[in-house]
Amino acid sequence: MSLTGFLIGRLIAEQELKGPTGQITNQAAVDRSAALGLAFGATPIGIIAVREFARNEAGAVAQPAPAQPVIIRTPRVVGLPPDEAIKELAKQDLQGIVENPLPAGTAARVARQSPEAGASTVKGNFVVLAVEQVTAENPNTNPNNSPV
Fold it and tell me: Exposure string (b/e) for 118-130, b if CB count within 10 Å is 16 or more?
């Protein structure tokens, strides 16, 4: 055991655990690092061990808590052209993915969506869109034969 190791451990920890304002962010971690320095002494291995311990402690303190997911209802986009559906989803911070894109210039609309309209989902999630070609036989109806 070494008083020099204790002091070196404290100095290293204070350097590693200073926050943006220059204040020590975790005094308990400084004390643990100093105790580790006392145990290892002022040897090269002791200094490396204290430095790595303090860096790990600093990383554990500096990590922000993960944000809680925001739950929203999936908007109804069935019947809309794919481009409009994607824009509507983006307004709700959702990402629309067209499952079976049609060739450019083809008149199309969303036939199905997953998750379905009204279902709970997390902001930022994907909504898969199945599209169908608009034809003379189905100009204004969705797959349930109800008006769009």
Answer: eeebeeeeebebe
Q: Where in the chain is the domain with CATH 3.30.10.20?
A: 71-133
The list of the chain residues with pLDDT below 50 reads: 61-62, 143-148
Decide: 26 and 35 in contact? Cβ < 8 Å: no
Q: What is the pLDDT of residues 110-130, one digit of tens each?
A: 999 999 999 999 999 999 999
71-133 to CATH, choices 3.40.50.20, 2.30.40.10, 1.10.10.10, 3.30.10.20: 3.30.10.20
Question: Which pLDDT value is given to residue 143?
Answer: 47
Residue pair 96/86 in contact by the 8 Å Cβ criterion: yes
Helices 44-62 & 3-16 angle (0-180, nearest 10): 30
Report the amino acid identity of residue 127: V
Identify the pLDDT of residue 144.
Answer: 46
pLDDT number for residue 32: 74
Helices (DSSP H) in 1-148: which residue ranges? Answer: 3-16, 27-40, 44-62, 82-91
Largest CA distance in the chain: 89
